[in-house]
Design a protein that fits this description.
By secondary structure, this protein is an alpha/beta fold. Helix content is about 40%, strand content about 10%. It is built from 29 helices and 22 strands. The strands form 6 sheets. The chain has an 8-stranded parallel barrel with strand order 9-12-13-14-15-16-17-18. Strands 4-3-1-6-7-8 form a 6-stranded mixed sheet, covered by helices on one side. Strands 2-5 form a two-stranded antiparallel sheet. It is globular. The structure holds zinc ion.
Length: about 675
């Protein structure tokens, strides 16, 4: 799980305003503070509850939303107090009247140092992967960036004003999200509380799905504003364009002018400088996560045939398309062991037959190290894993690793322990492989924490005799840093070596990855984009991405509908009518029987109750209806179910849209790296 921290500022508005509240001089020494706090004992309140400013209130609503859904530990909250210094939300404090906002620059520097804000924050952030800062100018000054303990495995996200920008380092792991007057207008929310309001919206987005969205934010903080774009009430068209249609650089057009190049992505290597194993091929594996749909789904009535077995009767993407949209499939041991029934079936049938994947195509197995990242030791033995790969018929089997990420990458002793453990496991794996009668291809996995450690790990694996190696633990690493790691490894790579990047398919960086020696990868992010976030749910070969049109079933929105019914805004029957009208209008539009405006109105009429923002949806939905991208796609899904692909509604549409995205991704990949 991503460890998340919020750092916010104290506000002048507090629950109590006693006449004799604390002032700055009361904080100068501990004995005064203790004495004065006693006088105010009746007002003692946890910090999280004492502040009543707009930013704080909205922020706490967002925090509650997250905790209600995922539990208390999903996020920690600290407050920069101009009196108490950096305090946890649970610390009990009494009302005080001190704020950095009334101090000059030099007063802030002196006082914040005295109450230890920078020092305490520096120590605090070490334990977190993702930190949100909601601080105004003067509080940012009090924090005194940069923080020495910040590291590349973290994302430090600052919601801040344009004038604060110069205080925030312009480099990883710092991410600056400008929040200004224009945004206050566009979100139709006062500037004073806007940062808290934005966090509240973010929390609303996150709880709509599982924690994958939080992971997405961690990996790419620019998605934060993208996903909030739909809450803007008065979006300037160019702002929508920028924030919601921001796309990855199309793979099919890698040679762009300078204006499109991203830092670190242009290598300018000549052919002779490419890695020795460069062949112009890049193999794509898709991780298997039970991505199946009902092939006989009745879209008009929204029903599946009763009594069906979701394993036997449902189909994988490769059973729908004439050819799989991936070169192979990656199956983690944790997936195999998802349930007793599933495990027993796989043991009985073998992995290829279970996922009904052509025997001639590779299935790769690994141990799923993310599942035991917090354990002291991996829960498997080498012999057991060798036998498991062989028995189930895997084509490629990966040695047992232990991830070196987050806090483990920061601790020099622990990262060395994990590094050596992974290395010894790889040695043991290959030795026992050679002694036994195994026929799958053994792969050694490298874990590290910086370019040099990855290089050493790769060098060892090549020395041991592996012809297939994996680089693990890079899912949350920036593209630029992955490139730095590959640059270190490139000189060691012999011409026969396969280098697989675990969990990574960055469309904008495939070319540099490939030139530097990576020639296989896996990722499900194209698939999952179909239902994560707004604005980029449906991908196309041109690189243009579209929002899917949300027509959620009334039945599935019980709480919201109940609330609206209770408020007297309509009856269940009325909402169902709006829902059906939206669906039928979309289908009529697809057949050319209804105008765009009439269709859009029907969709928005329902969206007004069920959706989150009519104005933004109006722009996004108009665009997708105008362009009708599903009519231009020649994939079997778009050909057979047409406009249903673009409707955001239930597994059978959403996952099919994910299959379509995978098709698009693979097609672009093969344009860039054709098969032999
Ligand atoms: Zn399609």
């Amino acid at each position: 799980m991503i460890k998340t921290l919020i750092v916010t500022s104290c506000t002048g508005e507090k629950l109590f305003h006693p006449g004799h509240q604390l002032t700055q001089s009361d904080f100068v020494d501990d004995s005064t503070l203790i004495k004065r706090e006693k006088e105010l004992a009746e007002y003692k309140t946890p910090a999280g509850k004492l502040y009543t400013g707009m930013q704080h209130q909205r922020l706490m609503e967002g925090v509650s939303t997250l905790r209600d859904r995922f539990g208390k530990d999903i996020v920690d909250l600290y407050i920069v107090s101009a009196g108490y210094g950096l305090i946890s939300e649970s610390k009990e404090i009494v009302p005080y009247e001190v704020t950095f906002n009334s101090m000059t620059g030099s007063e802030i520097a002196r006082w914040s140092a005295q109450i230890g804000i920078h020092k305490d924050l520096n120590a605090l952030i070490q334990d977190y992967n993702l930190v949100f800062f909601l601080l105004g100018d003067k509080y940012l000054k009090a924090v005194n960036l940069p923080l020495e303990s910040a590291n590349d495995c973290q994302k430090l996200v600052f919601f801040a004003s344009g004038t604060s920008k110069k205080m925030i380092p312009n480099e990883a792991p710092y991410c600056f999200i400008e929040v200004g007057q224009e945004d206050a207008k566009s979100f139709s929310y006062g500037l004073v509380g806007l940062k808290g309001y934005l966090f509240k919206l973010l929390a609303q987005e996150i709880v709509k799905g599982d924690l994958a969205l939080l992971e997405d934010y961690y990996r790419d903080p620019s998605l934060i504003m993208t996903s909030l774009g739909k809450y803007r009430k008065t979006p300037a068209p160019e702002c929508i364009q920028l924030r919601l249609f921001e796309t990855d650089e199309p793979v099919s057009k890698p040679k762009k002018g300078n204006q499109m190049s991203k830092p670190g992505l242009e290598l300018n290597l000549s052919r002779s400088e490419f890695a020795k194993n460069y062949t112009g091929h890049m193999r794509y594996f898709i991780p298997e996560w039970d991505d199946r749909v009902d092939p006989n789904y009745d879209f008009l009535n929204d029903v599946s045939v009763g009594n069906r077995d979701t394993y036997k009767d449902d189909v994988y993407a490769h059973e729908i398309y004439p050819k799989p949209n991936y070169d192979g499939i990656l199956v983690s041991k944790v997936i195999v062991e998802g349930s007793k029934k599933k495990k027993a079936l796989i043991e009985q049938m073998g992995i290829h037959d279970f996922i009904r994947f052509d025997q001639a195509r590779p299935v790769m197995g690994d141990c799923g190290a993310f599942d035991y990242v917090n354990e002291y030791l991996p829960p498997f033995e080498t012999e057991e894993i060798l036998d498991y790969y062989q028995r189930l018929g895997f084509n490629i089997g990966v040695s047992i690793d232990h991830l070196i990420v987050g806090q483990y990458a920061q601790d020099p002793k622990e990262r060395m322990r994990r590094y050596n453990l992974t290395k010894r496991n790889a040695e043991d794996f290959l030795k026992k492989y050679k002694e036994g009668h195994y026929t799958f291809l053994p792969s050694g996995i490298a874990q590290g924490w910086d370019p040099k450690s990855y290089r050493d790990a790769a060098a060892d694996l090549i020395d041991m005799g592996y012809t297939h190696i994996c680089l693990g633990g890079l899912v949350r690493t920036t593209t630029k840093d992955i490139i730095e790691i590959l640059k270190e490894i490139k000189p060691l790579i012999p011409d026969y070596l396969t280098v697989h990047l675990f969990g990574i398919a960055r469309p904008d960086a495939l070319q540099p990855f490939c030139q530097l020696g990576a020639n296989a990868m896996d990722s499900a992010s194209q698939l999952r984009r179909a239902w994560l976030g707004t604005g980029a749910n449906y991908h196309t070969l041109s690189g243009q991405m579209y929002a899917a049109i949300r027509v959620p079933p009334v039945e599935g929105h019980g709480v919201r509908v109940k609330k609206m019914v209770a408020e007297g805004r309509g009856t269940i029957e009325q909402f169902k009518k709006l829902e059906m009208n939206a669906l039928q209008s979309l289908r009529a539009y697809d057949r050319g029987e209804l105008s765009l405006d009439e269709t859009l109105n029907a969709v928005l009429e329902y969206d007004k109750y069920i959706g989150d923002d009519r104005d933004v949806h109006q722009i996004l939905y108009r665009k997708v209806l105008e362009d009708m991208p599903w009519k231009q796609c020649d994939c079997v899904i778009c050909k057979s179910i047409g406009i249903e692909t673009i409707i955001f509604r239930g597994n059978n549409r959403n996952r099919r849209r994910g299959f379509h995205n995978t098709y698009v991704f693979y097609k672009r990949l093969k344009q860039l790296y054709p098969d032999d």
